């Protein structure tokens, strides 16, 4: 499979960056291929313009979508699977990725008379500073899953998974203690999620 990785983290000095690289090693070791949008490195503009708003809100196919949005849409339609990799910020994805959805999930592509293909697989790999018990309290983890799986990815992939690497905050002992185990897990997800190519 060809996997489109949408990666969003402001710093290379991060657990998320290491987790991303381990995942990529798994993808390539299983004989699959990938392309990637590194949203910070690309300087992807997450801010919807008024013109884009009026197009999407009025269910219009005009004007043409912007070139940077079109490029992302083409990456999706030339792939079989999509993987989102990011740290949890305030129980959401970082703003740059949230804005990526605002703009790339445009009318006529992701909704309406859509041209977006139904992907074989979608996976979300996110890192969260809090431990799982804290994320489950007040249904925070559930909220994040519902937004990603029940809204953004709903009907847009045949299978979708949400994987969280919890307790990764720099102040938590767990971060260092579970570092290697978490990277191994990310590697194995990359290795097994998209099937082995002979
Ligand atoms: C602005 C900001 C907001 C954050 N919000 C949350 C949050 O809502 N829940 C949570 O579990 N962790 C939160 N974190 C912690 C990050 O998810 C954590 O830093 C990351 O998952 C792992 O570290 P990394 O940045 O080294 O990849 C936040 C961190 C920052 C910088």
Structure description:
The protein has 198 residues and is an alpha/beta fold. It has one domain (2-192): Rossmann fold (3-Layer(aba) Sandwich). The protein is 43% helix and 19% strand. It has helices at 15-29, 39-42, 50-57, 67-77, 95-104, 132-136, 140-152, 173-177, 179-192; strands at 2-7, 33-38, 81-87, 119-127, 157-165. Strands 2-1-3-4-5 form a 5-stranded parallel β-sheet, with helices on both faces. Helix 1 packs parallel to helix 9. The radius of gyration is 17 Å and the shape is globular. It starts with a strand and ends in a 6-residue tail after the last helix. The protein binds flavin mononucleotide.
Quick rundown:
The protein is built from 9 helices and 5 strands. It has helices spanning 15-29, 39-42, 50-57, 67-77, 95-104, 132-136, 140-152, 173-177, 179-192; strands spanning 2-7, 33-38, 81-87, 119-127, 157-165. The protein has a 5-stranded parallel sheet, with helices on both faces.
């Amino acid at each position: 499979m060809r996997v489109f990785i949408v990666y969003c983290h402001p710093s290379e000095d991060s657990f998320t960056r290491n987790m991303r690289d381990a995942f990529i090693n798994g993808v390539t070791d299983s004989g699959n291929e990938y392309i990637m949008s590194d949203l910070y490195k690309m300087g992807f503009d997450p801010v919807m313009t008024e013109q884009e708003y009026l197009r999407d809100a009025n269910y219009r196919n005009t004007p043409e979508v912007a070139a940077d949005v079109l490029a992302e849409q083409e990456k999706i339609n030339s792939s079989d699977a999509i993987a989102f990799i990011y740290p949890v910020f305030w129980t959401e994805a970082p703003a740059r990725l949230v804005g990526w959805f605002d703009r790339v999930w445009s009318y006529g592509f992701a909704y309406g008379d859509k041209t977006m293909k139904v992907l074989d697989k979608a996976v979300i790999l996110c890192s969260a500073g809090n431990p799982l018990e804290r994320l489950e309290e007040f249904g925070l983890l559930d909220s994040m899953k519902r937004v990603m799986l029940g809204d953004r990815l709903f009907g847009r992939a045949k299978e979708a998974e949400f994987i969280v690497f919890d307790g990764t905050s720099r102040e938590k002992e767990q971060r260092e203690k579970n570092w290697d185990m978490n990277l191994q897990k990310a590697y194995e997800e990359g290795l097994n999620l998209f099937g082995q190519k002979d």
